[in-house]
């Protein structure tokens, strides 16, 4: 839980929990590329959530255009009710 979460309303906190749910779904998926696309689509439909990025990266370059077979992490940044939240998960 980020210290920024205190700035979120109760409904915004529920949306903020979607970050970790999405990252976990990506980490557990056998097709991470497709799962990232699924999660991006899901985030675009959430009210009050503006997705900045959701991508797979490797820990050396952290570029969002790294080939999928080199990914070590999934990273996400969103704005929820004006609060920027970031998270990542090791794949």
Q: Span from first to last CA?
A: 20 Å
- Number of separate strands: 3
Shape: elongated
Strand arrangement, largest sheet? 1-2-3
Pick out the low-confidence regions.
none
What is the strand content?
25-35%
List the helices and strands and how they pair.
Layout: H1 10-28, H2 32-44, E1 49-57, E2 73-80, E3 83-90
Antiparallel strand pairs: 1-2, 2-3
Helix pairs in contact: 1-2
Description:
- The chain starts with 9 loop residues before the first helix and ends with a strand.
- The chain has one domain: Pantoate--beta-alanine Ligase, Chain: A,domain 2 (2-Layer Sandwich), CATH 3.30.1300.10.
- Helix 1 packs antiparallel against helix 2.
- It has two helices and three strands, in the order H-H-E-E-E.
Overview in brief:
Helix content is 35%, strand content 27%.
Key descriptive features of the protein:
three-stranded antiparallel β-sheet; 91 residues; alpha+beta; 3 strands; 2 helices; Pantoate--beta-alanine Ligase, Chain: A,domain 2
């Amino acid at each position: 839980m980020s210290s920024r979460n205190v700035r979120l309303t109760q409904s915004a906190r529920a949306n903020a929990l979607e970050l970790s749910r999405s990252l976990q779904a990506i980490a557990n998926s056998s097709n991470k590329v497709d799962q990232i696309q699924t999660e991006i689509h899901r985030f675009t439909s959430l009210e009050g959530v503006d997705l900045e990025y959701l991508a797979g990266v490797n820990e050396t370059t952290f570029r969002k255009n790294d080939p999928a077979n080199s990914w070590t992490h999934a990273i996400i940044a969103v704005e929820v009710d004006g609060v920027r939240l970031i998270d990542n998960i090791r794949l």
